[in-house]
Every structure is written in C-alpha cells, then in structure tokens.
C-alpha cells in the first residue's frame, strides 16, 4: 500500500471517527468536536476530499463509501495497536511459551494498568469480575494478593466453582500460610487446584468475561489486566486453558504438595 496514503489515514483518524459517529458535520461542528481552528478544519477537509474520503452534501461533510470503510478499519487498527502496546508483556510471555495470542480478539478489551497512586487497580478490576460470576477457572503464575484472598475464600465457600492452575511454589505458599483456611476452602467442594510450573501469564475465565494479565517481576503484583466478553477471546482462552490444564498435575497426585497436608485428595481430576 502507498505509505503516504496510510500515514494520511492515521493522521486524519480523528476526523474520520467524528464523521463516522455523527454521519454528517459542517465546519463549525468539526471545529467544536476536534477543538481546532477554522483554518485547520479547512486544511483537513480539503486533504480528505482530495483523497476521496469525504464529500459535501447539503453544506455538510459526509464520508464516502471509501471513507466509511477506511474509518472503520482505521478505528479497528488503532484500537488493536493501543491494546497491543498495553499488553506488550503478555505478548512477550506468549511468544516465549509458543502460545499464539489472538490480539484482534482483545482489541476492544477493558485494559486496566497499575498506577503510581494505585498499584492495585488491575487486581481490583479482576475482583469485580469475581464478584459477578458463579464460576472461575484460570492460570495464575503468582500468589494471590493478600488484600483479596479473604474475599476469594468467601466467594468460593459461598458457592463459586473454582478451578485454578498454579505453579508448585504458589500452591505450597497457599497451603502453608493458612492451612485452616485452605482446608475450609477445599471442604466446600467448590475448589480444585492443578499444578504447572511453566505458566506464560495470568488467564481468567469467568461466566461472562475472560481476561489476561501480566505481573510485576519485583513485586509480584498484577500490573496489567485486560478483560473482554468477545466470543473470539473466549474461544482463544478456552483453548489455552485446556492445553495447560491437560498438561498440569492434579493436586492430589502431586507427592511434594500432598505431603504438606497428609490425606488431602481434593483437586484430583476425574
């Protein structure tokens, strides 16, 4: 494709988006919407008309059929690139583990990142999904945030069916730090653990949404979390989860971890 033409589309994306949303706008409407001067709007619209992307109808600017197609595709491209940028650690982890990541499926995802004033925003977003679901499955390479472990415990013993794949070190810490709570959680019959020591990233599958997350190497905190209800993302997440679940060891079959709680057999696969 002509590079100059592509650059022009990206540079004019705000105008294309405004006309796509409003269907038609005059110069004053565009000035107000884009917060630019009259001369800037004149320059923008002249360029877009020269490229056949917009035309005049009854004194207003409208997208041509070509313009509508380009506006839609530029919006999709921009959303995908912005999300990819925020999910760079997940993309890197997926590549390192030979996991094909469906970036397009997450283009419209809600992305939550840790902020200097609130490093817990991603895990708080995750907890809103937990509060809204009655089933939870996932891959979790890090220990559960202590601030939310009690809330997760209450959701599980309250009826939320939960199956999670953890690394050995995380399972050991969960069982050792509060064995009474662990036993109560397992006794509910709603909690199953499997063990896998090479998880690529965090992955959650709730009743309505799926999410992926990356963790800070130093703090272990969830630093980026993206969730969506897109069917394509669900299909991808189910496939990834099934692959890792099939390769994992049920807790009841893991000699090292079973010794931490003699006689514990919950978490075994059928």
From TrEMBL:
Boundaries of every HVO-A0261-like N-terminal domain copy: 3-84
Pfam families registered for this protein in UniProt: FilR1_middle, HVO_A0261_N
Highest taxon listed in the record's lineage: Archaea
Residue ranges occupied by any Methanogenesis regulatory protein FilR1 middle domain in the UniProt entry: 119-246
Name of the featured protein: Uncharacterized protein
């Amino acid at each position: 494709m002509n590079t100059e033409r592509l650059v022009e589309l990206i540079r004019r994306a705000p105008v294309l988006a405004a006309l796509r949303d409003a269907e038609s706008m005059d110069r004053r409407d565009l000035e107000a919407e884009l917060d630019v001067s009259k001369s800037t709007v004149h320059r923008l619209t002249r360029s877009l008309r020269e490229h056949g992307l917009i035309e005049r109808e009854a004194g207003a600017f409208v997208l041509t059929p070509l313009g509508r197609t380009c506006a839609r595709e530029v919006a999709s491209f921009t959303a995908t690139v912005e999300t990819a940028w925020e999910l760079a650690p997940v993309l890197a982890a997926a590549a390192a583990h030979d996991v094909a990541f469906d970036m397009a499926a997450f283009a419209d995802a809600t992305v939550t990142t840790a902020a200097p004033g609130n490093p817990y925003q991603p895990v708080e977003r995750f907890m809103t999904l937990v509060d809204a679901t009655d089933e939870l499955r996932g891959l979790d390479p890090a220990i559960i945030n202590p601030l939310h472990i009690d809330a997760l415990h209450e959701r599980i013993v309250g009826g939320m069916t939960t199956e999670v794949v953890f690394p050995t070190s995380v399972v050991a810490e969960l069982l050792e730090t509060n064995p009474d709570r662990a036993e109560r959680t397992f006794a509910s019959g709603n909690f199953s653990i499997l063990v896998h020591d090479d998880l690529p990233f965090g992955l959650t599958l709730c009743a309505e949404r799926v999410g992926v997350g990356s963790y800070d190497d130093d703090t272990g905190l969830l630093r980026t979390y993206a969730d969506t209800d897109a069917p394509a993302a669900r299909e991808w997440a189910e496939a990834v989860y099934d692959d890792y679940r099939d390769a994992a060891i049920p807790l009841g079959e893991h000699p090292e971890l079973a010794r931490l709680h003699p006689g514990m057999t919950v978490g075994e696969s059928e």
